[in-house]
Amino acid sequence: MTESAQPDENHLIAARRDKLAALREQGNAFPNDFRRSHYCDDLQQQYKDSSKAELEAAAIAVKVAGRLMLNRGAFLVIQDSSSRLQLYVNRKTLSSEQLALASSLDLGDIIAAEGTLARSGKGDLYVDMQSLRLLTKALRPLPDKHHGLTDTEQRYRQRYLDLIVNETTQKTFRVRSQVIAHIRRFMEAHGFLEVETPMLQAIPGGASAKPFATHHNALDMPMYLRIAPELYLKRLVVGGFEKVFEINRNFRNEGVSTRHNPEFTMLEFYQAFADYQDNMDLTEVLLRELAQSVLGSTDVPYGDKVFHFAEPFARLSMFDSIVQFAGIREADLRDIDTVRALAKKAGGQIKGHEGLGKLQTILFEELVEPKLEQPTFITRYPFEVSPLAQRSADDPNVTDRFELFIGGREIANAYSELNDAEDQAERFAAQVREKDAGDDEAMHFDSDYIRALEYGMPPTAGEGIGIDRLVMLLTNSPSIRDVILFPHMRPEG
């Protein structure tokens, strides 16, 4: 059975509902008593070298189930979670009722079959059916097989349909699962303990971002979806868990773009008696092993570029990167009026109260970030944009911090953690002043975190890695929505 490229969908749905009504009259229209013996891909792999004669002699009995994707008359093609497989509509072995069922099936129906394995003259593996059952009647038609589901917005809104008809989408999310599984194994192998920290917080902290706010009725207090787990993870370091990590969601009430989703996944980890340079070394090993494990290569293709993870990642201070990539003289970069004018000219959002370090950061974001193609660690971020990082010993105006960029996108952010309770309290107070001045992304003052630091936190290095952007790289996906199963969208209509 074929369906035209632009069918009258309402007519087709009505016809399918009529078929379902007839099934209901016959008994249970949604049976749940079938148990398969094999997945399609298992059979394809296990018997790929078996000849037609060998299969015929072995008479291997199988039970398979899946969604009907093609109906070629004599052959049905089903798809399960692993692969596809053909089913032969054998008019000699199937009853007249089952032959009628085979001819009445619609694309998208969930069916089950029992029979023996065979191979066609063309070399294709198939099941010579001895019985056929309809397990679930699909009421909506699938997209035309020749055109597929090409509307990008529909793919995001109806991910279930996207997964049914687009093999590339399925592969993307299998890679995502493999990425997270590999990261978890890597962290555990390096002695890190996986933990869970609150996602609903009384005080949002750990990053400069605008939070989602709500209200807890029983406690009669405002609450916030977390923007980062950082301050809780560092509390655990204070408590004696010296190497911890968490893979979970963060929420930021900010814009939506090809790089940003208000709900996103992060790996965040902390290790005591280490600094930001130790984290650079660890990150390089993690990404190199991850690419090899998931892609089978340390060369990562993305668009028309290839990123080389096997080579040592470049390391460059923010100041030097602006000089190198933007061609700005060092003397000009140290003059606040000149930097402010350059930042405005570059298109940066200038509010008027920024210090030199903030203005340099804006200039970096506008002129340098897009040019950082191969894996590059940018280090020594200005003090005023790093409220939780330790100052550098040789220059109090910058911090022991890095961000990792690949393909012009930030992938990771890390620093040697500030463990001076008094310094941290002063920085929180400065952030509060920023908030009072109108900065919605400035941090709150977290007095309990200061109290925790007063008990003493060992020298510690921490890091956050954006899982979504990392998966974008490893799957050659142009938008963050391509790697999030259910991205946030405006309401339909």
Automatic annotation (TrEMBL):
Keyword line: Aminoacyl-tRNA synthetase, ATP-binding, Cytoplasm, Ligase, Magnesium, Metal-binding, Nucleotide-binding, Protein biosynthesis
Task: Tell me where it mainly resides.
Answer: cytoplasm
Residues at which Mg(2+) 1 binds = E403, E410
The record's subcellular location field reads: Cytoplasm
Q: Cite the binding residues for Mg(2+) 2.
A: E410
Q: How is the cofactor bound?
A: Binds 3 Mg(2+) ions per subunit.
Kindly state which reaction or reactions the protein catalyses: tRNA(Lys) + L-lysine + ATP = L-lysyl-tRNA(Lys) + AMP + diphosphate
Query: Could you identify this protein by its name?
Result: Lysine--tRNA ligase
